[in-house]
Amino acid sequence: MAEHLDLHTAGDLLHHYPRRYAERGELTRLADLPLDEHATVVAQVAKAAMKTFNHGKGVRLEVVVTDGSGALTLVFFGRGAYAREKELQPGRRGMFAGKVSLFNRTRQLLHPDYELLDKESGADAAESFAGRLLPIYPACKQFQSWKLTKAVDTLLDLFEAEGWRDIADPLPPALRDGRGLAELPDAFRKVHRPRSKADIEDARARLKWDEAFVLQVALARRRHADSQLPAVARKPVPGGLLDAFDAKLPFTLTDGQLKVSAEIFTDLAAEHPMHRLLQGEVGSGKTMVALRAMLGVVDAGGQAAMLAPTEVLAQQHHRSVTEMMGELAEGGMLGGAEQGTKVVLLTGSMGTAARRQALLDLVTGEAGIVIGTHALIEDKVQFHDLGLVVVDEQHRFGVEQRDALRSKGKQPPHLLVMTATPIPRTVAMTVFGDLETSVLDQLPAGRSPIATHVVPAKDKPHFLARTWERVREEAEGGHQAYVVCPRIGDDIAEEGDGAKAPKSRAKSEEGEPSAEDLAEKRPPLAVLDIAAQLGAGPLRGLRVEVLHGRMQPEAKDDVMRRFAAGEVDVLVATTVIEVGVNVPNSTVMVIMDADRFGVSQLHQLRGRVGRGSAPGLCLLVSEMPEASLARARLAAVAATLDGFELSRIDLEQRREGDVLGQAQSGVRSSLRMLTVIEDEEVIAAAREEAAAVVAADPELTRLPELRTALDALLDREREQYLDKG
After folding, report:
1. Residue 95's pLDDT band (boundaries 50, 70, 90)?
2. Where residue 664 falls among pLDDT bands split at 50, 70, 90?
């Protein structure tokens, strides 16, 4: 169990809850089985037949089982098939476990494990299932669901005999009784050995509260500890840099920008560090809000640092900030404004002289604003008085890195985290529960609508031809286009520069892969290949350039500058253009192998077009068959421009990852019963209760059981993760 299911202790096994329950009298729905997942079904044999293949040299047994809602084929190859034919006679019922695959449009389990529920020899085993809900556990090939049932049964008997004396209940009795929740031993009995559906509901209600409450207490203690830290209050000075900047803006700020700015300035004026998450739709003007906060801090005598995840993005931010500020960004220089400041760029690839000057400007306080990559965190970088840290695109930036930058201030600086990936409210409360949240959901005036379409390249090749015609039409109309590919294409191991690698699938039993298999197994399309094909083919005569993460920084910056200046018609790039690139003249975004990107990533990429007065067009090119899950995901992106709606879809499809562990690293989730999307009310209520408990007793001295549960949740790694949060 430890090796294959990551279950190491009795507690782990108790918390390994059934995924669902099958009723002996009522078969589970085969029609709903998910492809490519390990499933356990309870079904009845409808028919069984031996077949030969490969000119009679090979044999296979095909068994069709049914549950009334649908049918499923079980396939066994080789000599063992004859023994199974004797057991799996029509009319027999059993539990069958295996990985669900698709062959000839039929769902099948290849060489499934099974346990018959009505074998004469095992009357006791069948009897133990009778009249009882059968727990179906998350299992694996090496350890099937029914083996887990037996292990959990053994464990429950042991705990019953001991009177449950080793179980510490994390919920304070007043909270448990006040909300009418079951006691913990009772919840474990009901979740693993339910007598009725009401038992399952009782158990779930209680166990969800445990997870939500303990997690929210951990986050509430972080917020409480942060509120005890000292920080320098930074109040903007009337008639200073911020007022001068606002006076020269050629447009008015949206109501949303003004409201969020007010929240930020209130936080900055406090004598404990701000911890705020600013989330906004692509193009909602987050950078403008962050810049005004930075200017306010400079007015108050401090310095502000903006951290970007990539050099391309740091350079982009530096360019747009200096353009927006004009002569205000040239403090101390000829022609610079009197109340101006210096805005410096600091990246790893800068030349020695430029770097030395930037470091000097920071340590003397000459530069009020610095924009850079993680190069800002190096030991050599010293600030005169760091007052505010702005982190762009939090999910790309390690917590340790944020922590290192925060330690650069004489006292902890204020922290503003920006993300353009909209996060549903419950996820924000759970994942970023130690940050206060501001949302910008209003787009500035002048933004154009973006039309999105899926281009099925395999089913309808003429749609792909039409895609390149549209790109040419836009270019000839004076506009520009992006073409994004998942891979660079010079076949060095391509770490982190593009989309995730596709999952590999088993071949179908006859060795003939399906259309979906073929589409997934083909290597992802590459920037260098596609750029060459387009330049020589459908886009011949247009100015086509490439941009990817392995180019030299000067070369990348040069391409981006020329693209922004309109000297390049089509930019073929990896996802380095995903965030922050702002070229209002670009109107078309073509995403190749779009099925290889996540929903949020597609939404980010789409936000690069339609930033000017001309409408935007986003084309999602995919070779996946129409019925596939990947195509359903693309259809969802095409159907809405609402990032919050898409983030819900994305989360439902990806499942939660580990909300405390390194963001989305695929570690087994610490949430086993709670689902962040569906249990919004539980999470919100748990947050309130947790805040009250921590306010009354920050060290939890009166609640030793809750401390024990916290220690179990926050093993050393996660405790450090939160501490650096």
Report:
1. confident
2. very low
- For the chain, the C-alpha Rg in angstroms (whole number) is 29
124, HSE (Cβ side, Cα atoms, 13 Å): 0
Distance from chain centroid for Cα 320:
28
The residues pairing with 701 across neighbouring beta strands, listed in sequence order, are none
- Amino acid code (one letter) for 275: H
For CA atoms 689, 693, 694, 695, the dihedral sign is positive
Segment 209-231, tens digit of pLDDT: 988 998 889 888 888 888 888 88
Please check the confidence at residue 724 and state whether its pLDDT lies above 50. no
Question: Which letter does DSSP use for residue 462 in this model?
Answer: H
Alpha-carbon distance of 571 to 576, in angstroms, equals 12
Q: How far apart are CA 223 and CA 228, in angstroms?
A: 9
**Looking at the DSSP assignment, which residues form a beta bridge with residue 571?**
482, 545
Cβ atoms of residues 589 and 617 within 8 Å: yes
Give backbone dihedrals phi and psi of 484, rounded to 5 degrees, phi first.
-110, 135
Q: CA-CA distance, 49 to 89, in Å (whole number)?
A: 10
H helix intervals, 48-144: 80-87, 123-129
Q: How far apart are CA 618 and CA 638, in angstroms?
A: 9
As a whole number of angstroms, the distance between CA 80 and CA 58 comes to: 12
Q: Rounded to whole angstroms, how far apart are CA atoms 546 and 556?
A: 9
C-alpha–C-alpha distance, residues 388 and 298, integer Å: 9
Residue pair 476/468 in contact (Cβ under 8 Å)? The answer is: no
| Residue matched to tokens 């050099």 | 311
Q: Tell me the torsion sign for CA atoms 330, 334, 337, 340.
A: positive
Rounded Cα gap, residues 274 and 411, in angstroms: 12
Is the pLDDT score of 577 beyond 90?
no
Whether residue 430 is predicted with pLDDT greater than 80 in this model: the reply is no
Find the mean pLDDT for residues 243-265: 91
Q: Are 699 and 44 in contact (CB under 8 A)?
A: no
Give the Cα separation of 426 and 429 in Å (integer).
5
- H/E element, 520: helix 515-521
> Which residues are CB-contacts of 686 (< 8 A; sequence separation ≥ 6)?
209, 212, 213, 215, 216
Which residue blocks in 163-285 are alpha helix, DSSP H?
173-178, 184-192, 197-228, 241-247, 255-268
CA distance 660 to 676: 13
Nearest to 668 by CA among 708, 710, 717, 707: 717
Does residue 553 sit in helix, strand or coil? helix
Cβ–Cβ < 8 Å for 93, 25: no
Q: Which two tokens stand for residue 73?
A: 């084929």
Spatial CB neighbours of 9, under 8 Å, sequence gap ≥ 6: none
Question: To which residue do tokens 């400079």 refer?
Answer: 298
Q: Of the spans 16-25, 28-37, 152-161, which averages the highest pLDDT?
A: 152-161
pLDDT for 52: 86
pLDDT tens-digit series, residues 24-74: 544 456 777 777 776 778 888 999 999 888 887 888 999 999 887 788 999
How would you label 594-632 residue by residue, b for 16+ Cβ within 10 Å and e otherwise? Answer: bbbbbbbbbbbbbbbbbbbebebbbbbbbbbbeebebbe
- Helix H or strand E encompassing 390: strand 386-392
Look at residue 487 in the predicted model and tell me its pLDDT. Answer: 87
Read off the DSSP letter of residue 143: B
List, in sequence order, every beta strand (DSSP E) within 671-711. Answer: none
Rounded Cα gap, residues 395 and 627, in angstroms: 31
State the DSSP code for 134: E
Report the chain's terminal Cα–Cα distance, integer Å.
32
Which phi-psi region, left, alpha or beta, contains residue 692 (left: φ > 0; alpha: ψ -120 to 50)? alpha
CB 361, CB 303: distance < 8 Å: no
Q: What angle do CA 415, 420, 426 make, to 5 degrees?
A: 80
User: Measured in whole angstroms, how far is the alpha carbon of residue 122 from the centre of its chain?
Assistant: 47
**Cα 644 off chain centre by:** 13
